[in-house]
## 1
Amino acid sequence: MNQLRRDPITGIWTIMLQNGKEMVTFKPDGHRRLRRARPGETCEFCAGHEGETAPEVFAVRPNHSPRNEPGWNVRVVPERVPVLQIHGETNNRGLGIYDMLDGIGAHELVIETAAHGKILAELAENEIADVLTAYRERVLDLKRDARFRYILVYKNVGEGRRGPSLRHSLSHVIATPITPLRVREELTNAQQYFLLKERCIFCDMIRQELEATQRLVAENENFIALCPFASRAPFEIWLLPKRHETFYEWNNELPSLAKLLKLVLLKVRQALGDPNHLMIIHSGPNLLAGRQRGYWKTVERDFHWHLEITPRLRGMADFDIVAGFQVNWIPPERAAEILRQCTI
Amino acid sequence: MNQLRRDPITGIWTIMLQNGKEMVTFKPDGHRRLRRARPGETCEFCAGHEGETAPEVFAVRPNHSPRNEPGWNVRVVPERVPVLQIHGETNNRGLGIYDMLDGIGAHELVIETAAHGKILAELAENEIADVLTAYRERVLDLKRDARFRYILVYKNVGEGRRGPSLRHSLSHVIATPITPLRVREELTNAQQYFLLKERCIFCDMIRQELEATQRLVAENENFIALCPFASRAPFEIWLLPKRHETFYEWNNELPSLAKLLKLVLLKVRQALGDPNHLMIIHSGPNLLAGRQRGYWKTVERDFHWHLEITPRLRGMADFDIVAGFQVNWIPPERAAEILRQCTI
């Protein structure tokens, strides 16, 4: 008998197939694998091509090399064709029953390494920590702008771009003038839970998972990696700080996060062979924007930031598309077991 | 300047690109087109293959031919490998902070025609009306079961199945023991609007769109077809009854709906050349299930059923995936204009 499981944080129900077509994920054609770069391939994100991108807004340059020159580990540049523009006001307005505003925001690319074709899992722990630091610095900076209610940080491995630059490891930092629907749902559910229990729902989840153990993937002193009870997709993995913390950008244990993230990504590679995947940070919204509007007064009490990794395995998407719930053919208990057994 | 537009019914924000890459949709490779059947191709859903499916639960048989024999226009059979099972109880239960229940439900296939490879738009109006009638009959029957809170009716053209049966025109009828998240969002938003205005939000939208006209695609005496103000994808189209009506299955003007639906599908074909697309009916939930639990007391007042068509054009999905809002590179005003100009 298949199970329906509800994620208490997103409110999304997932149909968990008990004897699902597990092998799908292990057949070579079972999922879209990351295409590797051809030898000698370069793109506009490579060292020496700094002039082909917009001028950098942030970079990690160990030897203090000049801006927009080689010598960087991580480099952040504005997206050439942003969907949201940095200049202007949002002009929040109505049209009959409709609401609209101007597309104000920011869209930046985090170039995670100068080495074309190298993927995040292949970087050294300190290099991954540099990437996580770049995220933090950009979020802190963009949150100084009260027009931006939320800052999205994510990477969509193996999708989005075309051509060689698809194979240069990138992340996106996007500032939006509204709170994305799914984030708002998490904030609302976390708040309702606190009102009911006077506890953070994420802290309760971490405690329960540390006791149950069968959905644990890995942990270290500061962070935990688990397959959520109502995983929306096979091998969905969440990384959370063990201590209650609302904002990713306030974390000062990023080297420890880098260590666990690398381990988890290597386990995913070993189990699934570099599948296309999505990685996204769910952090608290922009308090500066919130305060001006009287929002999110209790968010620091309610919400607990986390990082979500979702491999893109071939599956049945229909149901998700039409109904807003998912079908997952590998229960998280089994996925976590497979990942635990991957020895790095 | 791009615009952000909010759909008042779903609550979803869409980024509307003003000078987007419109041509994408018209390049032959601009979107995934429906693959047509090869000559002589057959599948288990063809006339004469009735034995290869589960026994039918409903059929339109003009000449009263016997069940599970040829001679039908429309045939409804249970899905061979359903994700939800018809037998048993849901056993709604908790596990610490989590909620779960058994995968009780129903999953049926509506075989829209005996003619392999023929698509819905190619059927005669009365044949399309037979399909719409099959939807109604199955929904009415499944709603007699109080375990089912919602009945989903949709078709996912060009996706889902593999092999020849991919090219036999099918719809899905799925009964679920919980109300899908997105449906619940629509019900909630419609209710909140009524509480504020004491009017149905859909009725208000229809009135506003009939006045504005620039997002109108087509209309007849009973129904209207429009591109919604905050269209989540290019050429998204909604069909709605002009009169306030909560439940699709209570409609008795299905021949009139069939007429407009065929016209709209032919316009989509002319403008986009048989793109893969999703078609879904959003109807009211199962009152029988609701009454037992004290839900949806005001749904007949708040909600207005509608049929949504969403072509699958190549686009930027990232944003949607990560954030719960969409990027649309063709404003609905332009899409509606293109569709109006398609003369059938």
## 2
Amino acid sequence: MEQKIPVAVLAATGSVGQRFVQLLDQHPWFEVVALSASDRSVGKPYGEACHWILTDPMPAWAANMTVLPTEPEAIHTPLAFSALPADIALSVEPAFAAQGTNVCSNASAYRREPDVPILLPEVNAEHIDIVKTQRQKRGWKGSIITNPNCTSTGLTVAMSAIQKAFGIRIAFVVSMQALSGAGYPGVPSMDILDNVIPNVNGEEQKVEFETRKMLGNLVDGSIELADFGISAHTNRVAVSDGHTVCASIELQERVEIENVAQALAGYQGPEISRDLPSAPRPVIQLRSESDRPQPRLDRMTGKGMTTVVGRLRPDPILDLKMVVLSHNTIRGAAGGSIFNAELLVKSGLLQA
Amino acid sequence: MEQKIPVAVLAATGSVGQRFVQLLDQHPWFEVVALSASDRSVGKPYGEACHWILTDPMPAWAANMTVLPTEPEAIHTPLAFSALPADIALSVEPAFAAQGTNVCSNASAYRREPDVPILLPEVNAEHIDIVKTQRQKRGWKGSIITNPNCTSTGLTVAMSAIQKAFGIRIAFVVSMQALSGAGYPGVPSMDILDNVIPNVNGEEQKVEFETRKMLGNLVDGSIELADFGISAHTNRVAVSDGHTVCASIELQERVEIENVAQALAGYQGPEISRDLPSAPRPVIQLRSESDRPQPRLDRMTGKGMTTVVGRLRPDPILDLKMVVLSHNTIRGAAGGSIFNAELLVKSGLLQA
Amino acid sequence: MEQKIPVAVLAATGSVGQRFVQLLDQHPWFEVVALSASDRSVGKPYGEACHWILTDPMPAWAANMTVLPTEPEAIHTPLAFSALPADIALSVEPAFAAQGTNVCSNASAYRREPDVPILLPEVNAEHIDIVKTQRQKRGWKGSIITNPNCTSTGLTVAMSAIQKAFGIRIAFVVSMQALSGAGYPGVPSMDILDNVIPNVNGEEQKVEFETRKMLGNLVDGSIELADFGISAHTNRVAVSDGHTVCASIELQERVEIENVAQALAGYQGPEISRDLPSAPRPVIQLRSESDRPQPRLDRMTGKGMTTVVGRLRPDPILDLKMVVLSHNTIRGAAGGSIFNAELLVKSGLLQA
Amino acid sequence: MEQKIPVAVLAATGSVGQRFVQLLDQHPWFEVVALSASDRSVGKPYGEACHWILTDPMPAWAANMTVLPTEPEAIHTPLAFSALPADIALSVEPAFAAQGTNVCSNASAYRREPDVPILLPEVNAEHIDIVKTQRQKRGWKGSIITNPNCTSTGLTVAMSAIQKAFGIRIAFVVSMQALSGAGYPGVPSMDILDNVIPNVNGEEQKVEFETRKMLGNLVDGSIELADFGISAHTNRVAVSDGHTVCASIELQERVEIENVAQALAGYQGPEISRDLPSAPRPVIQLRSESDRPQPRLDRMTGKGMTTVVGRLRPDPILDLKMVVLSHNTIRGAAGGSIFNAELLVKSGLLQA
């Protein structure tokens, strides 16, 4: 890439926004030229407006950048990464798309729209094509492409490897989700010390829908939801980063656990996704220890982009049980949106 | 009760042993006359031999009691509470039973024996009758009666209310278990801070077996396992006390969630169990908030003996989802064994 | 007491307000007749307006009480407990005092006023007399009496025992404070998991001032600050309740550590304080183990009202080192204000 | 360095041993050729003998290395890193030194010997010269050089900057120490969840001695302890890595806080230490935020080798207060020993 593509980060001061800034530092294709935030931050240097909570220090270029308002009048990049809350994304993201910005969004606002893809390049790269329908139908020069909620992310990668090999009939999944998934300030410490919160608002519905959309087929420019049953319980636990999901799965055919292990460990994802800068290496790491994956030890596998699967074993009712771990703010949020943007560029769809 | 029944606590210095001592303090029926522990503690005052880890102070009578060896030659009470590890329980508990001691055991060693009941008085009080078979078959004057592992405890209470009303076909359960379940010193702090451990050794097999035994029928002096499918994932989380279980359940008939709610909230258990000193009041507390039960807030409900159920809602595949919470070292361990002993006395089976 | 004194709780829905409600449940002298909160709660039942975070359930009488505005026009009790934030307390508490309400306040707003006592009945009960000066000078029928910040509380009780016996020249103190001290929602969980925050805003100044005021002498109706040097560092740690303070102290005379131990263990406080309903029993518990006091194990000593001291040992520079623990929302906040109100009543100063 | 120096790690399977393996991976000067452990691991591949607890994966070269016994007969490298427990180090380390191995030790066994240096190259590099006395006196071809306990490490670096500029008269220090400092399994999780342990066995004596030895002068081949008073309280808190120390310090002369800030921020350490591969860059990072340093955010500063200082402010009794943070298993243990070995090589003292 001779010249880097200028990009913006919308809502750059929050916890996901900070991850965008961190992960875009020295990105080989993209260069951040604009950071936006809410009114009270506009006009300040990012380094002053932002209460940085990541352990890597804030990049120097970011610290000195002046915060812009989150408005298409102020930001004219071909690509923007959105860490906006869903209610604001609802009105702001289309305004950017209309003016020609491709919005790679972490927000849930448009995930249920039939012409908006929910993308995991190592799972359903071909869904990127809906962008054409989207532009045509909505008269946009840009687009909105989304990544799934963080709990669906790793789970769908693991399910994809299994579904492509053997087909899936039913999945029961129970999450134990990290605190960073709730943003900042997020969960009060008094609520989670020595505790579990047995609900994450709206998350179960997202998991039950988004997995089926991503694993569905593209038919005539729209997506048919995958035809399997899925039931989710979602919980918050005292973990900083890394969502752990226990899953029991029924396959469409009976196979040995060993075959499932091979399908997971050897999974590569669509060819177009494999050499992108943010592609996970490996896509899936299958662990054989009886007590892995663990968020503290395994979340940074493959720079936080790899899906880690362990405890693969027979299920006494269905076919198999497993545990899936994925870094919720890297693979499951900012890193995922960036990976999607790379796919958009590689697919030649950055320009309408 | 005019005169209290003298009782012993076997393995009294460990975390469950301490709970026995605490819960037996001022018990209306039982009086602790013997505390046993391993060789290096024998002969010392309990207050010196025991590294007390509970927040209530050690009872004064216990502090001054001299620790005895865990041998039937040294202890001759009609009733003993066992907090022994499974491998030691295997040889020691029968020796006590043979000499006439009724061992109310928290150990797993004999739970799979067909003539040894796993008891939850509010669930299967009638299983106490197997003690007669046990004595006859083994030639014991005493007996061994067990309580289930701590994860099965609350789950089985909740399932019992549902099973008796509507029948259960299938249950998927995922636990998030407290640290005290692993004893002391138990889980190293470095392993659980900012972490989840996605396995508790041997626990899944116990849950998948013990629930079916307790909910099974007593036929001709032995227990037929209940005829439902059950699949369990078990996890360790950073919680001190209180096991949380997410469950998805398929019933034998379709009913409204409201009916299930009534069955749970109104559940009373067998009549014989209701007025025992340790009987939970209420047996089940059904909570309607979207984020309960939580271990920190709900584990002490009914002095730690009540099973707390919440988030009752339809399951997209089966019939219902719910979350069950139970205090693992009170209802799920020491308190459960004491409750069982009360049932034994009330049933008139203390004497062979 | 033939008839209970009607009392109000101001700002009853916050974390300290909830403690007031809990601790006033079945109080032998006081009966809660009014609960106030901010505008968005006014008119609602307390049970609905309040997100209850304590482990004991909300008392039934409180759940059904209608929340009132925090205004003297709406509340006319002779006694009110204030859990107001300092900035609101500044204007609201004098308005109540003017109309005849005695405000026992947990707020810092008036602690630095020379005619407002900071009271710990087991330390400086005689300071209650400044209320007379206060009423005269300000023309109030009621009064404002305060309890110290939660970090100063246990520390001052322990220092008082030492000061009265031997005199204190210098104290270096470092706190490790619980999360509940920051209110609710308070400290974000992402900020404290696997972390220490080496500052609690404004706390060091409070500790350095309030200890000297409480340990000072009442001279001509006003308080002379005690004449010792004190330096404080304050930190936040991942503990739910219970502030731990490490202290190094120089005495006015050289004494054996054993004498200091006796002074601490035998400390009783002024006679008027000893039989009040909330009086700690014992005032100070001195522990001899090498690893106590610990917040999880010791904070509920004496129903959370006792100051626990441990690790008493020589200091290589000054005279002694010790560790002091006190429950920050019971002895250090709501329980302390109630104890102060009891002293006011007992002193015959409830009426001007 | 044309050819790397072969080195051994003694007690390589424990938590500090693992850090040695991790930090020596791709070290520019050293190449690990031997890993030792206790009898039950000898003969196994390291990858199998070691329960790896670090988040970076075990280096492949280490996984395949066969574990050797910790005996000079089995290991003949010129340099060995010791993570041995103190009681074993006592007999084993001299045996290695006698045969010609230079033991860079993390153990406390020999720190109090007058001819054994406790080294922090950025503080007292010149103390390396005692090795000559040591060899002469003991007739060793090798040597023992130690790094201080982890709590003294960062504290001494910060104190060194201040002492060299202004002199120190008195220091009061209180630590809040991480769990990894206790090794593995170390602190039971039940002991630290929602808790503080107000003692770390033997640590206070170490801090009060080792700081004075390191900041002392080398006079006639032996070290005179520095002439200041120091008093330490040491505590364990729920933090994985990173020891935080609050310090109040009296200087030998009155200076402005601003001058102290300059002395800290500009501190460089002895010239010989500056370009060593493990030299911290910067030596000290001085932070100006009111709530830093924090272990979670700051422990990895300078790859875990930098001492982070914050909250520099006047002390109401002495001259200044500050908070010091240092990574206890990197700078305070394995990384420190490696840094010392680099100094030994650079000083030309590897060979007797």
